[in-house]
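hiii so um. not sure if this is the right channel but i have a protein structure encoded as tokens and i wanna go backwards to a sequence. like what aa goes where. can anyone help
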């Protein structure tokens, strides 16, 4: 295993990726960028964080954004005044697009480069559904989150959820005429095609996923709406 991070100047300096593991592919990353502009994404993350009442939390919380991609959730945390920010993602390409004060690590969420009980909050805005093995990899990622959080620390998650709204969006995105009419739907469909295997497995196992969260965290908020699971849990 090798390790690396991007230093404060954005220079790759260390990496922490299991040998042989690849990041998301180029076609997926291209569709991801077409789906939302950075501005749209930051506005979405701000809305979510406000829904979780993040504006009421101390601004010196040590926060790690897992599966941080190009770092727009880190921008949202920063805009809300949080100052102790770090990010983790497998894709060096996406991380290198982030410009901001957070320290970012090219690393695997199943093997975090942090000490035990060293962080106050871990956040995920869409990432767990990319893990190859639903039960074993999700268990690894959640166990790592529980290891790294301080007692009383929180896990904040937003992940796709198989609500009627999501099924409707998928039906629309699969329609080639609608894809031609909407770049967003076309990009959504491309994303789906490239992550279908893990994504469909994730969508089909809501009970298992909720049980795994509840085994490790005390649930503070749990809401299923607009095709997403919104979850906030505390490490006891
Ligand atoms: C749907 S994107 C979400 C990115 C970001 N959370 C956002 O909403 O902008 C999923 C991200 O997870 C990353 N990823 C996939 N598997 C990972 C793993 N095992 N550990 C860390 N990051 C991973 C991918 O590189 C990708 O950037």
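sure thing!! here u go:
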């Amino acid at each position: 295993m090798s390790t690396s991070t991007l230093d404060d100047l954005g220079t790759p300096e260390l990496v922490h990726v299991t040998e042989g593991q690849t990041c998301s592919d180029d076609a997926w990353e291209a569709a991801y960028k077409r789906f939302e502009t950075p501005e749209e994404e930051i506005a979405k993350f701000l809305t979510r964080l406000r829904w979780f009442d993040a504006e009421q939390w101390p601004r010196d919380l040590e926060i790690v954004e897992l599966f941080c991609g190009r770092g727009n959730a880190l921008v949202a945390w920063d805009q809300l005044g949080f100052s102790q920010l770090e990010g983790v993602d497998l894709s060096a390409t996406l991380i290198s697009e982030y410009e901001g004060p957070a320290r970012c690590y090219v690393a695997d969420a199943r093997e975090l480069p942090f000490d035990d009980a060293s962080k106050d909050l871990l956040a995920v805005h869409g990432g767990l559904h990319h893990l190859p093995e639903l039960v074993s990899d999700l268990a690894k990622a959640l166990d790592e989150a529980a290891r790294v959080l301080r007692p009383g620390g929180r896990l904040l998650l937003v992940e796709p959820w198989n609500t009627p709204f999501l099924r409707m969006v998928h039906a629309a995105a699969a329609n080639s005429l609608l894809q031609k009419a909407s770049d967003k739907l076309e990009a959504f469909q491309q994303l789906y095609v490239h992550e279908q295997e893990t994504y469909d497995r994730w969508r089909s196992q809501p009970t298992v996923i909720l049980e795994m969260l509840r085994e490790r965290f005390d649930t503070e908020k749990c809401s299923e709406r607009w095709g997403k699971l919104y979850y906030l849990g505390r490490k006891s």
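oh and The mean pLDDT is 90.
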